[in-house]
Amino acid sequence: MVELEKQLKESKKVLDQSKVNYRAELVDNIFEVMIALDKDQDFKLSDDEIDAITKKLEGLQGIEIHDELFKQKIIESGRDLDSVLKLLHDLLDEDPKTAPETQKIITFLPNIKY
């Protein structure tokens, strides 16, 4: 029984690390999309650029985006790419203090293989 518990704890560690890696990869992908869609390369996101980013994110598998709240948070953060990157890290860390359930902007869907 002790060996099984040990294996279960090890499996949980591996799964948790996979989730962290998936989230980091997701942040990288979102940031790359933002840079590519920043048409005028001013590192500030216009309303049209924010709409385009949101549409691209909706196509990512395994996550659900609350569009209007996401757009609002980008605007509140100052629209610049550095602020948006920090916002993404806060949204994806699963810390309830940085992303309360009532304001969940990015939700990871169940049954996703990390």
Your description of this structure?
This protein has 114 residues and is mainly α. It has one domain (2-108). The protein is 61% helix and 5% strand. The protein has 4 helices and 2 strands. The protein has a two-stranded antiparallel ribbon. Helix 1 (2-37) runs antiparallel to helix 2, helix 1 packs antiparallel against helix 4 and helix 2 (47-58) crosses helix 3 (67-76). The longest helix is centred in the N-terminal third of the chain and has 36 residues, at 2-37. It is elongated and about 60 Å long. The protein starts with a helix and ends in a 6-residue tail after the last strand.
Biggest beta sheet attributes: 2 strands, antiparallel
The number of helical segments is 4
The H-and-E topology, N to C, reads as HHEHHE
Range of helix content: 55-70%
Q: What structural class do you assign from the helix and strand content? A: mainly alpha
Give the rounded overall mean pLDDT: 79
Terminal Cα span = 28 Å
Give Rg in angstroms: 16 Å
Give the tally of structural domains.
1
Number of separate strands: 2
Range of strand content = 5-15%
Strand order of the largest sheet: 1-2
**What is the molecular shape?**
elongated
Enumerate the spans where pLDDT stays under 50 for 5 or more consecutive residues.
none
